[in-house]
Amino acid sequence: MSSVAHAVATPRNDVRGVYSDKRFAALPEPSYPFRMTLVPDEFRARFERKGWYPGRQVPVGPRVPKDHPAHQALAELGGLCLTRTDGDDMTDYDNYFELVEFQYLEPDQEQTPPWERALNTRLVAIAAVDSQHGAMLMSSRGFIFGVSQIHHGFWLYGRSFAEALPKIYSVAFRAQHMVIDAHARLEFIHSSIGPVTDEPLGPESPKLQGA
Q: Which residues contact 151 (CB under 8 A, 6 or more apart)?
């Protein structure tokens, strides 16, 4: 089971058979078996308003490897559409532009492969973001990245889904951009409007180790 999820208790049905082995006869029978979820407790209410519920599982297409954490993410969250605010009015700028649509997306062939090689990981797109102007990617070890669909741009959301969510919902969130090499770093600095306050992350950055 991927380390990107955390355990929550869900009401039991009947698990007595699981604990019927005589070797465990002296152990108290648990009231709640544990299952895994990607949704942190502080975001459960928001996700529930959009149709999520504990134990939600939807079909995942064959293009997503079953041993990749993106498979669990899409099984639990696929088909959900989240907005930065709790409203559903798509005429509202924040709701429309900040829409996160959980779905499998075919990988781009220009920006993603070099980062897969640099980080020695496999990146799977699990959501469209910013009105489909970008995609949210999950690495083999659960890191969450973003990639622009309209220009060169790659960034880190967080080292886990739980770490990425507050940034996605934050109005003040500023993407931590990533550059694949020294040439890309110079291009990023020259194309930036105003001074660069956050040094872009390179493949050797400690924040990207273990992706």
A: none
Alpha carbons 78 and 60: distance in angstroms, whole number: 8
Q: Which two tokens stand for residue 131?
A: 């009105």
Ordered by start, the domain boundaries in the chain are 39-208
**CA 72 remoteness from chain centre:** 11
By the 8 A CB rule, do 204 and 180 touch?
no
Q: Do residues 211 and 139 make contact, with C-beta atoms less than 8 angstroms apart?
A: yes
Sign, CA torsion 64/69/75/81: negative
Beta-bridged to residue 100, according to DSSP, are 82, 129
Average pLDDT by stretches of 10, the chain with 211 residues: 48 36 39 61 90 94 94 95 63 55 91 93 92 88 90 88 84 73 55 53 87 84
DSSP annotation of 164: H
Taking the CA atoms of the chain, what radius of gyration do you get in angstroms? 20
Structural contact between residues 123 and 112, judged by C-beta atoms closer than 8 angstroms: yes
Q: Which amino acid type is present at position 68? A: H
Q: How far apart are CA 172 and CA 44, in angstroms?
A: 22
Cα(186)–Cα(95) distance, integer angstroms: 34
